[in-house]
């Protein structure tokens, strides 16, 4: 018994010694967990990134929508197979999108340093290309090794691939903005004075962001001014037509020659002044745009027209606290351009129109066609700039906290001037497409009007229906002998030159977070 007791005591001593040795090797007591803290410096939703003095906010939305009577969720049935209005035209198209944005801010001795990033992941249902070949609008660019791709140009995983887009990616520091952001020229509502419809004319709109370097001065009392150098190639150039390239099929698609844009040699220079008060907002914007064409012919030795600067000016007005109800607002803007048409026909608006409808007499159908350019030239001539003016606006009324309705409209005119019109009409005459007694005039007007109703049953979730009517007022008259347009299944025939109308609808569900 004594021996057993001794063995137990010795064993216990050995175990305690080993435990003490292991305890000596253990790390010191861990620090308390550093929990994420609310950052109240920049409004709700910001938190400190642990271990830093930088605040971050995550946001975004998920959107599902269906467009009716158009081949594009962006606009109306203005051209291509949508404008053809036949069995190749989509009567509906669907799109789903997830948006993610990241906003970071850090207080420094020079002021707040801000970065902002906004990306979208999108899938859009198939739209037709050619006669009966379906294709997904967005593909992943994967290698086309499947036998399926030889028919409809789908990438291998195009059905579930979708697309990735970057809207904004910029840094703001000491009054400067560097990167991809909304243009300084734009009104605060960009393309949307009251609407969801993307294709309104009558003002600028770079809702998807444009690369820029901008300095903004804040004078207090809601008064700011900015000057900006912005990438013109992405958003601010429409067409520079060389009328030597005019063809009958091109004209019927809204193109008056070869689009002969040269390389970008100068950014657009933009200035802006804004007054933002409790009653609303007033803004004046100005832009200078360099038109830099390619060559008269296929090679350098054919020569080229000299550069010609265009310009645009815009006024915008927002009126709040109107008597119709709390939160109601009216947004208005007007713009004039000379050689800078994209500031009227904004980045998501059409710059070519080819719309078919019913004809009369011995014609097969009717057609209305038109095109937008910054400038026009013929071999051996200088640039003739295109002048436009436009306006748009919308009024939103809140019926209650859950329902609102808005009406909106837009109008734009395009004028080619004596020189540009003569050059275009000479090219059209050479094709022999206009019948005897017909008149040639590339000028046109377009008018749009719409109504949208939104229902927000709970915070951040909105259902909306937006209906838009568009009228193309083209200035040609008579009839035209058209060749076969295989891409839209239109036969060679006589067509009446006539104004055209179209209606589209956009039904949307969106959850903001």
From TrEMBL:
Mode of membrane association: Multi-pass membrane protein
Subcellular location field: Cell outer membrane
Keyword Transmembrane: yes
Entry-linked InterPro entries: Porin_alphabac
Keyword rRNA-binding annotated: no
Alphabetical UniProt keywords: Cell outer membrane, Ion transport, Membrane, Porin, Signal, Transmembrane, Transmembrane beta strand, Transport
Signal peptide coordinates: 1-23
Main location: membrane
Pfam family, one: Porin_2
Entry's free-text remark on domains: Consists of 16-stranded beta-barrel sheets, with large surface-exposed loops, that form a transmembrane pore at the center of each barrel. The pore is partially ocluded by a peptide loop that folds into the pore lumen.
Family, similarity comment: Belongs to the alphaproteobacteria porin family.
Protein task: Forms passive diffusion pores that allow small molecular weight hydrophilic materials across the outer membrane.
Protein name (record): Porin
């Amino acid at each position: 018994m004594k021996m057993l007791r001794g063995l137990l005591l010795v064993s216990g001593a050995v175990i305690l010694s080993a435990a003490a040795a292991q305890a000596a090797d253990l790390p010191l007591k861990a620090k308390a967990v550093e929990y994420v803290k609310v950052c109240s410096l920049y409004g709700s939703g910001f938190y400190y990134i642990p271990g830093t003095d930088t605040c971050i906010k995550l946001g975004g939305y998920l959107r599902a929508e269906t467009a009716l009577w158009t081949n594009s969720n962006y606009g109306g049935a203005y051209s291509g197979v949508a404008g053809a209005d036949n069995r190749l035209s989509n009567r509906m198209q669907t799109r789903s999108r997830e948006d993610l944005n990241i906003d970071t801010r850090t207080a420094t001795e020079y002021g707040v340093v801000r970065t902002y990033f906004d990306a979208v992941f999108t899938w859009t249902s198939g739209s037709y290309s050619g006669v009966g070949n379906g294709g997904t609008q967005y593909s992943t660019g994967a290698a086309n090794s499947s036998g399926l791709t030889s028919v409809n140009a789908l990438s291998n995983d195009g059905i579930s691939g979708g697309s990735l887009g970057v809207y904004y990616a910029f840094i703001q520091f000491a009054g400067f903005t560097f990167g991809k952001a909304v243009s300084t020229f734009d009104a605060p509502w960009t393309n949307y004075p009251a609407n969801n419809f993307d294709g309104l004319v009558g003002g600028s709109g770079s809702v998807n962001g444009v690369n820029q370097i901008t300095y903004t001065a804040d004078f207090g009392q809601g008064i700011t001014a900015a000057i900006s150098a912005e990438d013109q190639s992405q958003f601010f150039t429409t067409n520079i037509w060389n009328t030597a390239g005019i063809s009958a099929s091109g004209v019927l698609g809204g193109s008056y020659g070869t689009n002969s844009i040269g390389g970008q040699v100068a950014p657009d220079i933009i200035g802006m002044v804004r007054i933002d008060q409790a009653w609303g907002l007033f803004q004046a914007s100005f832009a200078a745009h360099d038109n830099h064409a390619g060559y008269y012919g296929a090679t350098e030795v054919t020569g080229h027209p000299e550069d010609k600067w265009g310009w645009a000016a815009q006024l915008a007005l927002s009126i709040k606290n109107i008597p119709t109800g709390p939160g109601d607002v009216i947004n208005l803007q007007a713009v004039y351009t000379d050689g800078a048409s994209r500031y009227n026909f904004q980045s998501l608006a059409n710059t070519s129109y080819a719309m078919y409808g019913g004809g009369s007499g011995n014609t097969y159908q009717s057609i209305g066609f038109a095109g937008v350019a910054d400038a026009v030239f013929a071999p051996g001539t200088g640039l003739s700039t295109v002048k436009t003016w436009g306006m748009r606006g919308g009024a939103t009324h809140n019926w209650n906290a859950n329902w609102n309705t808005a009406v909106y409209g837009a109008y734009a005119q395009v004028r080619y001037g004596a020189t540009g019109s003569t050059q275009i009409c000479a090219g059209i005459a050479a094709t022999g497409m206009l019948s005897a007694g017909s008149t040639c005039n590339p000028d046109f007007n377009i008018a749009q009007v719409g109504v949208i109703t939104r229902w927000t049953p709970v915070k951040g979730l909105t259902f909306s229906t937006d209906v838009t009517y568009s009228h193309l007022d083209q200035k040609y008259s008579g009839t035209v002998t058209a060749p076969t347009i295989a891409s839209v299944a239109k036969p060679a025939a006589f067509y009446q030159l006539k104004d055209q109308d179209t209606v589209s609808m956009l039904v949307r569900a969106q959850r903001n977070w």
